[in-house]
Amino acid sequence: MIQVEKEDNLTFETGIQELEQIVQQLEKGSLPLQEALTAFKRGVELSQFCQAELTQAEETVTLMMTQSGLKELDEDQA
């Protein structure tokens, strides 16, 4: 599994923005092979980073809801 190191200025939002730019470049098909492979690798790293950030945010929200009792209310209404 490839992992991107947490860069000081890398946030979920900047990661998504960079990933979108990479996708656009790759979709154009104008990059030389080596550059396309490098861009693809970076895209995979960014995708994994952003997924990890989303998972962490989801866990934080779930924990906060559980601690405040909202999780129990939500399950009772289902």
Automatic annotation (TrEMBL):
UniProt cross-references to SUPFAM superfamilies, sorted A to Z: XseB-like
Keyword list, A-Z: Cytoplasm, Exonuclease, Hydrolase, Nuclease
Family annotation (Pfam families): Exonuc_VII_S (PF02609)
Primary subcellular site in the record, as a coarse category: cytoplasm
GO BP annotations listed: DNA catabolic process
Enzyme Commission number(s): 3.1.11.6
Known function: Bidirectionally degrades single-stranded DNA into large acid-insoluble oligonucleotides, which are then degraded further into small acid-soluble oligonucleotides.
Recorded GO CC terms: cytosol; exodeoxyribonuclease VII complex
Subcellular location: Cytoplasm
HAMAP family: Exonuc_7_S
Source organism (scientific name): Facklamia hominis
Protein name listed in UniProt: Exodeoxyribonuclease 7 small subunit
